[in-house]
């Protein structure tokens, strides 16, 4: 593979990780200011997103050593469990937003 492609993929991964870390820091600040079920779910979801991304990368790497069938099996499993952190974050955001709107009204 061309080095320029590797650079683009590496830069994209770094930017994505920095964005995830920013969301985690934002959730930590939110939890310290307003600790409730919604903010805790958002924090858990954001941390799990980072953990799942590392798990997906390492799992694909290890599966690659076992062959194409192993990569396909890992990809199928992760296609099902991968969205779970986003679902947790979304539910937490919804709970927080509903609670925030009720307090404002």
From TrEMBL:
Domain of life: Bacteria
Keywords, comma-separated and alphabetical: Membrane, Transmembrane, Transmembrane helix
Bilayer-crossing regions: 6-31, 38-57, 77-99
Name under which the protein is recorded: Uncharacterized protein
Organism (species): Flagellimonas algicola
Lineage: Bacteria, Pseudomonadati, Bacteroidota, Flavobacteriia, Flavobacteriales
């Amino acid at each position: 593979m061309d080095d320029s492609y590797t650079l683009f993929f590496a830069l994209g991964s770094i930017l994505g990780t920095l964005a995830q870390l920013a969301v985690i820091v934002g959730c930590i600040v939110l939890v310290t200011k307003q600790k409730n079920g919604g903010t805790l779910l958002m924090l858990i979801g954001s941390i799990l997103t980072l953990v799942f991304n590392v798990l997906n990368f390492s799992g694909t790497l290890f599966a690659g050593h076992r062959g194409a069938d192993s990569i396909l099996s890992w990809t199928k499993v992760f296609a099902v469990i991968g969205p779970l952190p986003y679902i947790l974050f979304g539910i937490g955001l919804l709970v927080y937003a509903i609670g925030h709107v009720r307090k404002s009204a």
